[in-house]
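User: I'm curious whether this sequence folds into something compact or stays loose and floppy. Could you predict its structure so I can see for myself?
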Amino acid sequence: MASRVGGTLAGSLLALTALVLRSRRQRDPMLDLGLLADRTFRWSSVAATLISLVLFGAFFVLPLYFQSVLGADALGSGLRLMPMMLGLLVAAKATERLVDRLGARTVITLGLALLAAALLFGSRTGVGDGYGRAAVWLSVLGVGMGLSLITAQSSALVTLPPARAGVGSGLLQTLRQVGGAIGIAAFGSLLSGAYRGALDTGGLPAEAAHLAGESVVAADAVARAGGGPALSASAHAAYVHGMGVVLLVSGLVAVVSAVLVAARMPADTPAGAGDHG
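Assistant: Here's the prediction. I'll summarize afterward.
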């Protein structure tokens, strides 16, 4: 398995290097990294990429929390995300006015600070807290996501001439997808390790213990098959612990991102960046 992963990573790096080298020789490249020479575009793109990475920390852990720990079905899990969508709508309405008044850098920093606050608050979730706590921090998360992500994408694209807007948008979305993929891989490994470390499988046969350590869903299945309610309770507590670790790291990344944007992104973002929101 390790050799397969290593080979895949090596092949990916070679393919990416070849793409970058080929793009540098093209007159109108599909992946124009030269756009990153503009500081506003560069730091807006960095912000959008880091926001995507951070958000995948929350999106990765919430569905199983709602379904396995709180007992919701798939539809119920979707409905429990509505506070985030409402926060996003509120932010979308306010973004343009805030950018005109405060500037894009300040709005992005504010949005990242709200993301950090929401994630750090969510990281303190206990196994008995229920949905109320999640609804609070999801609402703040939605506002932070709207302020930071909408403004970052708008301020990046508004720096480009119309003829380069398509290429710039493609580069920005590519970077966001890379950030999301890294987030899934990193937070997935973090969650898995924290869950296994906190799970109590004492008294279970080796095969059942291994299966329970794969996921909270598998642990619940083992518990129903004869592992007992103690295993299910331990799995739920272990998952909430792992979720807390993921949200804590996501929140800290958001804090670092806010500091980077505040320190490095130019303050003289062109007026009207919010118009593209």
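Summary: The chain is about 80% helix and 0% strand. Confidence is low (pLDDT under 50) at residues 269-277.
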